[in-house]
Records
---
Amino acid sequence: MMKIGELSKVVGCSVQTIRHYEKEQLIASAERSEGNFRLYDEAAVEQLLFIKHCRSLDLSLPEIRQLLALNRSPGAQCDDVNRMMDRHIEQVEARIQELTKLNKQLRMLRRSCSNRRTVEQCGILRNLSATPVSSG
Amino acid sequence: MMKIGELSKVVGCSVQTIRHYEKEQLIASAERSEGNFRLYDEAAVEQLLFIKHCRSLDLSLPEIRQLLALNRSPGAQCDDVNRMMDRHIEQVEARIQELTKLNKQLRMLRRSCSNRRTVEQCGILRNLSATPVSSG
DNA sequence: ATAAACTGTATAGCAACTATAGAGTCAATC
DNA sequence: GATTGACTCTATAGTTGCTATACAGTTTAT
């Protein structure tokens, strides 16, 4: 059994994050030592790694909670998992599209000013004051 | 002179947002009527549109505050504006790269499970329990 | 006079942590 | 046995850019 500091090093996330996950019910309340310190076993390590992996894929804490729940009922159909992943992929792709469009607008705006001008002549500021650039 | 509700309709942002911008010092404290209502003129409309345009480009409120300050000193060099834009563009492009990588991983993961399996057989959950997918 | 619509301030909530304060616990050293 | 240092505990505030709510006051229309 290890204390929270060791667990934090093993899985590579901060002590506060672990306590946060406990409060958010992503991991069960840990056993406590006589002195009220949290105690963890190998199962806790695995679960935290699972969560960490999900987070690296930008899954939200509620989504992860749902996955963990599904994981606990192995006989259930996994359609829910698939639906969640599909929705998540859609969101990521939508965000990429948004940012790509944004990037074009920013580059266009940036081209409207070279250095060494005064603010008064600055094409960027002038353009920002005008009507928003069209999306084309 | 118009009240905050009218301004909100004219520029297309919520009343709370306008009050929020005032608190954050993006716009000056508005004049008040006898009954303590905020009163705005055309200049306020223009400034809010400027802010709205910047926000549509995902500039942060501190960045916008800085641009507004520069706008007020028209003789200054606009290098700062250019630097800010460059940094911002870099950030957006970095985020696009991150999300693109993420998207690949998610799609790979999604392919590991088709519908109608049980959770126990679900490739997604199995993969999430394993070591994080490599970036390649 | 009254009701509806608007405005005011203050406060909490979102997401997923991070940082801080102040107190208690534990192991090692003097 | 006292002290030091490293660790842990809880509770709370801060991050970002709003949004939503509660409750009170103002204005406008009927």
Note: Chain B touches chain A through 53 residues (CB under 8 Å).
---
Amino acid sequence: MQLHKRDVIDAAAALLDSYGIADLTMRRLARELKVSPGALYWHFPNKQALLGAVADRILQTVDDVPGDWRDRVEAVCARLRDALLSHTDGAELVSATFASGHSQAMARIVEVLADAATQAPVAPSKGELAARTVVYYVLGFTADEQSRLQWDASGAALPDEQAVLTTNPTERFAFGLRLLVDGMAAARAETVAAARNFE
Amino acid sequence: MQLHKRDVIDAAAALLDSYGIADLTMRRLARELKVSPGALYWHFPNKQALLGAVADRILQTVDDVPGDWRDRVEAVCARLRDALLSHTDGAELVSATFASGHSQAMARIVEVLADAATQAPVAPSKGELAARTVVYYVLGFTADEQSRLQWDASGAALPDEQAVLTTNPTERFAFGLRLLVDGMAAARAETVAAARNFE
DNA sequence: ACCTGAACACCGTTCAAGT
DNA sequence: ACCTGAACACCGTTCAAGT
């Protein structure tokens, strides 16, 4: 029976969760679906587009919330991190598709964060940049966290000096995010000061 | 005549600059050096280690400077960005090796930034985290900037809506970094407030 | 419209055997 | 000690031909 786009994405997500991103190959996926590798290229132009679709599915649950701008930024980032941690190599996959511009969902998340930033005292023209800065942080932190998580889930012992990097990850995540939120809060003073300089 | 580690790294860096990270393969590198692919594995245990050595060479010039903590953070980040932009796909390569923990130079840069952070009003225990947050930003921003740079150097036209993301990159870079530096400056107030809560 | 089969042009890594 | 040659077990992508 016919192969649908949804089946392909389902199977790809299952492969990711079970074996990780290194085993999420077009050939492996085709084998799993019992089709020839070429069949996938009827439904997706290339591997990047397929990975983008998987990323978008992972990010489905990441939504905006009502509240002030701090609540919105913190909630979206917490949901983004949770979504990434819920899938093997989730952070790595989403980072790659974000970098290649193939994730629609990430574009939407940047928009939400940019909107929240302009509710903060960030100038509208800087909203997207502030949003991207937050996203770079969440992706970087979570990729790091997840690789350590998966490393010691695999039974390998971490050197003692790295132990501090694995305890209280949620608290550590909040600390770095607060740095950015505080920076955004400080932006008003600078905007006002800059405006004065031009008077 | 004999193949030395240095020759391999030199040739790898040349390959990177001329053709990009996708063409920096063990086989291609061996061909360039007129040796068999297996020869490289006498000098490096695997590809990751080789890429780590190339990353470390790219980051040679990134050094600490004297000054107050803001100057140090800003100088190190500016130098890091410059170093990445000086090599094709430099940001992507260094991001990958940093994530895999194979870059000694990145470890050193994190140490320098962590030290600067503890000169800022960041608690010593949070210094490394603040440093990593800064690094996530620099790598994310620069990878983004470089991919756009290389994309339109290749002659492709960018959609109008993306134009705002390519103008004044240095100024835009400084804006995001200021967000983090301001956040670090705000950390003292929080540390003091938190201490009060425990009295 | 949707898929197969087969090919094209590659990969990273290992390892017995050579010098 | 250092390297070759050849193999192993794969990749992503294309495309004529089939149904």
Note: Residues 2-3, 35-36, 38-39, 42-43 of chain A lie near DNA strand C (CB under 10 Å from a C1').
---
Amino acid sequence: EHLSNLLISMFGRCGALLDACAVLYRMPTPTVVSWTSLITCFVKNRHDMRAVQIFKDMLKVGVDPNGVTFLAVFNACANIGSLSEGRLIHVCLIEAGLQLDVAIETSLVNMYSQCNSLEEAFVVFNKMHLRNVVTWTSMIAVCARHGHNEEAILLFWHMQAESVEPNELTFTSVITACTSEHDFSCGRLIHILLMLNGLDMDIGIGTALITMYGKCGAMHDAVSVFSNLRSCNLISWTAMMTAYKELEQHEDCLQLYKQMHMKGCNPDIITFTIVLNACASLLAHFEGMHIHMSIAYFGLETDALVASALIDMYGKVGAFLEAYSLFNAVHQRDAVVWSAMISGCISKGDRREGLRLFHQMQKEGMEPD
RNA sequence: CCAUAACAGAGGUUC
């Protein structure tokens, strides 16, 4: 039956869920490992509701879950985001009377935070006797995601105090918290820690650092991190361009865009909006048109994000015909597309047209913000 | 030991 169990998880990896089920149903006496393998299959293929259902079937036929089963099923609850289901299975866990280990408790923490119950996540977290890097990182990331940045930063130092070694994920999460808090001194301190073990050249961490320094106005530091990066990808290029743009170094932003292009790295929606913003600030009509051509080449003209940046750029440089024709070509107009077009009219001095669009926007069911 | 926990980093208009 070890072979059958392996078969189940193998089918799961291939996405052949029906075959996985068939194997289990053909087994004379499926064990807890068989059931758990099947649940894991469904979770991996994002059929989380079904996974929970299978867990219940398993209980019904009298097979007792073990720790691994709970890991899988808490994962499913986390993906569904159903707090009531999660609590119910938490009760099952307690009733099962299993010896809790750090992995089970961490998956509980994660489940509660994914279900938006930071309080319950903390209750579990605070009760834990042993917390490893995954536990701490999970808690830090969750706090940052919920905007509890000070808490995330405090947790990081607490973790240091307990001599748990942070990893790449830990660092990116806590740096993100520093970014949102505009906490330059903490960010710099963490940067120093990173330089001690060479992780400051890691692309993910480096990108987070660039953004942190950019948001804190420390252009010099951002550039130095960028130039020390082990390698570059689209995200790190874009982060650096964003830093330049936000600190009003628009020429440098466009310069970097050209460099990226020369290195053969293709821009995406986010990159385009950033460089278009830079063009708008510089009133660089020609440069903007050039970028517009690239956007058309990639077929991204009617994307709402890109279109609003294009309309904004054309509006600011005074090219209203272009702005208008783009505006008319966008099918999914969100509030930002409308705002970009309306403020284009206003800055041109055409208040009447601006007002007309404002009313038309409401008529089309778009709420102004 | 046949199944085994966090999966992070760049985002547009106006303010």
Note: The two ends of chain A are 61 Å apart (CA to CA).
